[in-house]
Amino acid sequence: MTATHAYDVTVAWTGNLGPGTSTYRSFSRDHEVLAEGKPPLAGSSDPAFRGDSARWNPEELLVASLAQCHMLWYLHLCATNGVVVTDYTDRAHGEMALDAGGGGQFTGVTLRPEVTVADASMLEKGHRLHAEVPALCFIARSVNFPVTHAPVLRVEKD
C-alpha cells in the first residue's frame, strides 16, 4: 500500500473593489492563502497582470517551492551522509513564456544554492549530493519543465 499525504489550503479573494469582476480593470487580484494554524500569506498576480508587487504571486511561490524542496532534501542527504552544512541560501530563478492567447507556462527553473560546509573534506560529497535531490524532491518530480541546479560550495571560515 502506498502512503499518501494531503495538503489543504484555502485561497480567498479579497479584491472586490465594489463592482466585482464587471470589467477587467474593476477588481484587484489580491487574495490570501490560508492554512490552519498558519498566518495568512498575502497573494496577488504578477504586476505584469495587474497584480500588487508587494504581495506574493503564484509564479514566485512555485519557484520558492522548488527551492525549498531542494534545500530540505539536500540538508537531509547531507545529515545522513556526514556533510555538515552551516549555511544555505538559494537565489532561484524561474522563466515563463507567454503564448499569443495570454496563457503561458514555465520553461525552466534554475536553483543556485550557495552552501557553506564545515570542512574542506566535505566539498566533493557536498557537490555530489545535489545531483541526488531531483529524484527525491516531491515538487521537482511533479513539474513538466526542467529544474536545474548550479550549486556553489564554500568551506566555513575558522
What does this structure look like?
With 158 residues, this protein is an alpha/beta fold. The chain has 2 domains: 10-49, no CATH class; 58-155, K homology (KH) domain (GMP Synthetase, Chain A, domain 3), CATH 3.30.300.20. It is 21% helix and 27% strand. The protein has helices at 58-80, 123-132, and strands spanning 10-13, 31-34, 41-43, 85-90, 93-98, 104-111, 113-117, 147-149, 152-155.
Radius of gyration: 19 Å
Cα(first) to Cα(last) distance is 49 Å
How many structural units, i.e. domains? 2
The main sheet orders its strands as 1-2-3
Strand % is 25-35%
Structural class: alpha/beta
> Could you give the count of β-strands?
9
Protein name: OsmC family peroxiredoxin
Pfam family, one: OsmC
Organism: Streptomyces physcomitrii
Task: Write a concise synopsis of the structure shown.
The protein is of the alpha/beta class and 158 residues long. Helix content is 21%, strand content 27%.
Descriptive terms for the model:
OsmC family peroxiredoxin; GMP Synthetase, Chain A, domain 3; three-stranded mixed beta sheet; 9 strands; alpha/beta; 27% strand; 21% helix; 158 residues; KH_dom-like_a/b; OsmC_Ohr_Peroxiredoxin
Secondary structure: elements and pairs:
Blueprint: E1 10-13, E2 31-34, E3 41-43, H1 58-80, E4 85-90, E5 93-98, E6 104-111, E7 113-117, H2 123-132, E8 147-149, E9 152-155
Parallel strand pairs: 6-8, 7-9
Antiparallel strand pairs: 1-2, 2-3, 4-7, 5-6
